């Protein structure tokens, strides 16, 4: 809860710090089991031993671990996108660069001395509090704001967490969605295909399922599948394995990427038709439908001019849709204003 609170406040460093504490806690539990093996065998507590083994099997599928890992991955993906756009990832660096750019040489020198005095004061404070009562050493966190976590490679850290989720929480759709998000940014298209197939099975083999349509449209239209850098055998596997998803059971492998996109266009047509014809669609399905149409290169502005939510509305999904509309059309747009008004009516 604390980590998610920091995340909502856009304090990504402290949010990562809280999630990292949770992940390390579960890692400590897994590591401590080795001491328990010898204890149980020595004391012949077989019932407790079997219970411990069963607990270890489902340790990393615990909801608290899944929440911490998923939110950490989302932050790392966001950090990766920020770095790709050339944005700074820490407020401290942002303020430092902007402030120093406007300073004169004398002011910069004065600032440098002030920073040295501040650093020395912090070191003295740490030294004074390094020992608790009785002279015992006290552990001091040298990164309370999570700045060091922000400096790590986002994709490398995300992949570490994903490995555990794929192994122990593959029944959760979010695992496959996040796998696609991470692997698509690394151009690992076979991993993306594997994530789509897993999500397709969890969606009861329905290509129009709202959780599947967004990554599926991205894979078919945004991913550069015709790129010469992709080996021919990899492209052949993609054209073969994606065919049942787009064309149904027994579909023949596609001959080219153009054929794949032609079949994907029919799926997108169905998504667009459902958006326009079904006024009772829940907000979460509308959000994913809009993302799907965007990935397919279609304009949704006319639809949003007349759309008013009539189906199931949840506060969490409303916030997500407001954020999406603000990023795509701006908070000055009529679509954002109309939906904001509707949200205030439902959640006064």
UniProtKB/TrEMBL annotation:
InterPro entries: NatA_aux_su. Coiled coil: none annotated. This is Uncharacterized protein. Residues 109-119 have a biased composition (Basic residues). GO terms for cellular component: cytoplasm. Keywords: Repeat, TPR repeat. It comes from Strombidinopsis acuminata. It comes from the Eukaryota. Pfam families: NatA_aux_su (PF12569).
């Amino acid at each position: 809860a604390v980590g998610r609170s920091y995340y909502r406040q856009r304090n990504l460093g402290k949010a990562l710090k809280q999630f990292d504490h949770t992940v390390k806690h579960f890692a400590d539990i897994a590591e401590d089991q080795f001491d328990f093996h010898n204890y149980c065998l020595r004391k012949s507590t077989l019932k407790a031993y079997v219970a411990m083994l069963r607990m270890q099997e489902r340790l990393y599928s615990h909801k608290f671990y899944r929440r911490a890992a998923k939110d950490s991955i989302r932050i790392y993906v966001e950090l990766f996108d920020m770095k790709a756009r050339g944005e700074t990832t820490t407020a401290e660096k942002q303020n430092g660069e902007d402030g120093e750019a406007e300073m004169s040489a004398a002011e910069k020198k004065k600032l440098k001395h002030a920073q040295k005095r501040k650093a020395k004061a912090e070191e003295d404070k740490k030294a004074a509090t390094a020992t608790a009562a009785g002279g015992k050493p006290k552990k001091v966190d040298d990164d309370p704001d999570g700045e060091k976590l922000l400096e790590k490679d986002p994709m490398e850290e995300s992949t570490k967490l994903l490995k555990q989720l794929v192994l122990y929480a593959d029944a959760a759709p979010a695992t496959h969605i996040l796998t696609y998000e991470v692997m698509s940014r690394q151009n690992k298209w076979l991993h993306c295909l594997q994530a789509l197939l897993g999500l397709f099975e969890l969606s009861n083999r329905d290509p129009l399922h709202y959780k599947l349509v967004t990554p599926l449209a991205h894979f078919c239209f945004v991913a550069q599948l015709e790129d010469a850098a992709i080996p021919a055998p990899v492209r052949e596997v993609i054209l073969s394995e994606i065919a049942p998803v787009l064309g149904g059971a027994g579909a023949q492998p596609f001959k080219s990427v153009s054929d794949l996109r032609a079949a994907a266009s029919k799926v997108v047509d169905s998504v667009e038709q459902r958006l326009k014809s079904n006024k009772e669609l829940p907000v979460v399905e509308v959000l994913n439908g809009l993302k799907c149409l965007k990935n397919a290169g279609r304009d949704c502005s006319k639809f949003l001019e007349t759309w008013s939510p009539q189906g199931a509305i949840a506060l969490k999904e409303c916030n997500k849709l407001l954020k999406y509309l603000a990023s795509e059309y701006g908070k000055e747009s009529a679509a954002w204003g109309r939906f904001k008004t509707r949200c205030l009516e439902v959640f006064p």
